[in-house]
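re: the backbone from monday

yeah here it is again, tokenized this time
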């Protein structure tokens, strides 16, 4: 039986070489590739029959199939290159007297545009703008933010750690920043209170992507620190963000939530602007979309920033910038934001 298969392989190989050599177009070459090497091609079909052969025959026939596949692949690549080299550089003559094509107008990415809009709004309120490093340390991203040592965000399944970080101290163990909150401690250590500042930028999470989640996305954080800061001041920050984004008042709600870096903490939701609160894929049919955590900076975070928590307090919000853009333009899939698809981006140029 193996002798018959070897003869079939040899005959198939010879027939394929003849078709490849006689191909005069790339399309004909692609037809030959599919006929002999494609999923339903001759050689893969023979390979699927190896399981019914004896062990010795499988080795012999398998080796012949492998050699035939390698030979045909090389022949196809060589013939394809020869056909491409033979094609003229231009299918039609070049008329140098024709006018050139006008350059297309560029535009800002919708996420960057919203970032600039928020920058302008908070600049009018005398907020400073701060930028931190995208590669940060475990010390700044977790220890200084009151994350306990066993917190799951410290695991590789949630955070992108740089290679070779095992066994290093918290200050030496580096990762792509999973949030912007570590920048607040950097700012507090470099400035004298009271202060108010914003710090936008890209962050990175090791998670599965879907319509509402991405591995790399933008956040926009706001922190106000003074001797007396009320919860209503925090509500004013939220209203400033949403009024700037949508140009009209937006219904919000604040729910009690736990975050290690604030106490008390809040989950801040807004009414879904895609469906108007009726329920859709973007809001998981509930009519509300979580857009930011917020709350009063935890005393341990203030201490890490060199401040006395008995004297200083504040309010902090962290905006999921991409989600706000989704609401602003009625986009139902966050993956479009980073797809680099010009059909999507030209809508905002």
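seq for it, each position gets an aa:
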């Amino acid at each position: 039986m193996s002798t018959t298969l070897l003869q079939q392989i040899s005959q198939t190989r010879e027939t394929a070489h003849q078709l490849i050599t006689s191909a005069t177009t790339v399309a004909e070459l692609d037809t030959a590739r599919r006929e002999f090497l494609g999923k339903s091609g001759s050689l893969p079909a023979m390979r699927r029959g190896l399981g019914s052969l004896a062990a010795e025959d499988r080795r012999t026939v398998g080796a012949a199939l492998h050699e035939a596949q390698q030979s045909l692949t090389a022949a196809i690549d060589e013939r394809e290159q020869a056909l491409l080299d033979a094609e003229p550089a231009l299918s039609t003559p070049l008329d140098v007297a024709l006018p050139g094509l006008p350059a297309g107008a560029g535009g800002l990415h919708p996420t960057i545009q919203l970032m600039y809009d928020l920058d302008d709004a908070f600049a009018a309120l005398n907020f400073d703008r701060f930028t931190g490093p995208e590669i940060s340390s475990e010390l700044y991203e977790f220890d200084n933010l009151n994350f306990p040592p066993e917190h799951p965000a410290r695991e590789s399944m949630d955070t992108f750690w740089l290679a070779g970080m095992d066994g290093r101290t918290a200050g030496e163990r580096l990762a792509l920043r999973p949030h912007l909150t570590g920048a607040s401690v950097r700012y507090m250590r470099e400035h004298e209170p009271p202060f108010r500042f914003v710090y936008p930028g890209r962050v990175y999470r090791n998670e599965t992507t879907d319509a509402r989640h991405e591995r790399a996305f933008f956040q926009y954080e706001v922190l106000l620190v003074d001797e007396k800061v009320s919860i209503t001041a925090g509500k004013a920050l939220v209203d400033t963000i949403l009024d700037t984004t949508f140009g009209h008042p937006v219904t919000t709600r604040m729910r009690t939530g736990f975050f290690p870096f604030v106490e008390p903490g809040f989950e801040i939701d807004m009414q879904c602007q895609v469906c108007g609160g009726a329920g859709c894929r973007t809001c998981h049919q509930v009519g509300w979309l979580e857009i930011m955590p917020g709350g009063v900076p935890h005393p341990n975070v203030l201490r890490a920033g060199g401040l006395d928590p008995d004297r200083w307090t504040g309010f902090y919000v962290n905006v999921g910038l991409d989600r706000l853009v989704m609401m602003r333009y009625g986009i139902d899939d966050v993956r479009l934001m980073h797809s680099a698809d010009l059909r999507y981006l030209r809508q905002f140029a």
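The chain is about 40% helix and 20% strand. The first helix runs from residue 2 to 22.
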